[in-house]
Amino acid sequence: MKNRISRNDYKKILDSMPVCAVDVVICRGGRALLLRRNDEPARRQWWLPGGRVLKNETLRHAAFRKALEETGLRVTLRGVIDVYEIRFRRGPFAGLRSGVHNVAVCFRAAPADARPRVRLDATHSDYRWAPMGAADLHPYVRQLLRDARLFGLSGRLIRSPKRTGTTPAGHAGRSRART
Fold first, then answer.
1. Rounded to an integer, what distance in angstroms lies between the CA atom of residue 33 and that of residue 179?
2. 142 within some domain
3. 99 vs 88: CA distance, rounded Å
4. Mean pLDDT lowest for which of 47-51, 127-131, 145-149?
């Protein structure tokens, strides 16, 4: 896409406003695909595929694009889990005054291929298919996996998610997930 901005402009945006992003919980056999991040924010942590939405890009297209770019997988989206806010003290640039503030729409997805072959991009060093209840994760990722378990593969809500740690953007309260 030609809608990418310069690193300088992106740093200015991160210092002045929230960034609209998507995260994608790719589920297969009761497990979720997690990627080990190389860069801040959340460097060296297990994370979900995702990232910022580009100008004139739909949220669904951003989810498809980020899954493909970061994992090499084509996915079938199964629905939106929820909308979350997350703040990081550290960001991808030295000298960020205010850290990173994301408003992320989180999708549940499944690999489109019956035998998916993960191919990581340069922003990740490793991957694993983790149980949906894995405990060794950042609180934000644990919350997304907890909420994702409440949805069937059809994307239909099975029961209302409990809110701990992070706050969906449409709800009152402060997000507590910080890195």
1. 21
2. yes
3. 6
4. 145-149
pLDDT at 3 (0 to 100): 66
Mean pLDDT of 142-149: 92
pLDDT-derived band at 152, boundaries 50, 70, 90: low
Angle at 132 between CA 114 and CA 124, to 5 degrees: 70
Answer yes or no: is 124 within a domain: yes
* Number of continuous H segments (helices) and E segments (strands) in the chain: 3, 8
Task: Give the structural domain span for 18.
Answer: 7-168
Reading the block at residue 55, the tokens are 């100008």
CA distances 40 to 15, 80, 87, Å, are: 15, 25, 12
Asked whether residue 147 is domain-assigned, the answer is yes
Q: How confident is the model at residue 95 (pLDDT cuts 50, 70, 90)?
A: confident
Residue 128 lies in a domain: yes
Q: Looking at the 3D structure of the chain, how many domains does it have?
A: 1
- 45 or 176, which is more confident: 45
- Looking up residue 59, the CATH number of its domain turns out to be 3.90.79.10
Q: Across all residues in the chain, what is the average pLDDT?
A: 84
User: Measured between alpha carbons, how far is 95 from 45 in angstroms, rounded to an integer?
Assistant: 22
- Bridging pattern class, strands 100-111 and 19-28: parallel
